[in-house]
Design goal:
Blueprint (H helix, E strand, L loop, with lengths): L1 H42 L2 H18 L2 H17 L3 H16 L7 H15 L3 H12 L11 H14 L3 H12 L2
Helix pairs in contact: 1-2, 2-3, 3-4, 4-5, 5-6, 5-7, 6-7, 7-8
Length: 180
């Protein structure tokens, strides 16, 4: 009877170790891809950085690690924009938004919103689309990371709108911020 218990415990420990080692290896591989992509980005090799971030998206997706899925998509979207393909960035940003919005533990919803606002206002000249994301963030102000506040973010978005010639939207966001 003791031999059977030892066998069960040994098999269980082996199984648990294998599960954790696979997850650990995935995180290590993800971090290596991100690190190489960041180094390429710093050197100005945006094509190589884009490849690295794309690989990081695949790794994070396979592990279903939401923060990694969101972060890698944000970085990949930025590289696609820098590499002259902002239309390819939009789907990545919207996917990242949906992933992060639906996972309460996801970090950086407000920073993601800032990137989305810049994309829609600066790249696509669609302030109304940007405002949808701003309103969604406003409904989830508890998800704004400290030390940021909703008022600060709204002020930031108002400035982006103003700098890009969208005065009415800028004023509306400023009024919202001032009303908080």
């Amino acid at each position: 009877m003791i031999g059977l218990r030892v066998l069960i415990i040994t098999v269980s420990i082996g199984f648990i170790s294998a599960c954790f080692s696979n997850e650990h290896q995935m995180l290590v591989t993800y971090r290596e891809k991100i690190s190489k992509a960041e180094q390429a980005e710093l050197r100005g090799d945006y094509q190589l950085a884009e490849i690295g971030y794309a690989e990081a998206v695949s790794i994070a997706d396979s592990g279903k690690w939401v923060d990694g899925m969101v972060s890698a998509r944000r970085n990949l979207a930025l590289m696609k924009t820098i590499n002259g393909r902002p239309w390819e960035a939009e789907n990545l940003l919207v996917e990242a938004w949906q992933l992060c919005l639906n996972e309460s533990s996801c970090q950086g919803l407000d920073a993601l919103c800032s990137q989305i606002v810049r994309h829609f206002v600066m790249s696509k000249k669609q302030p109304d689309e940007a405002e949808k994301y701003i309103r969604e963030l406003g409904q989830r102000s508890e998800r704004i990371e400290l030390p940021e506040t909703l008022k600060r973010r709204l002020t930031e978005y108002a400035e982006i709108m103003k700098e890009n010639g969208f005065q009415d939207q800028s004023k509306a966001l400023s009024d919202w911020a001032n009303g908080l």
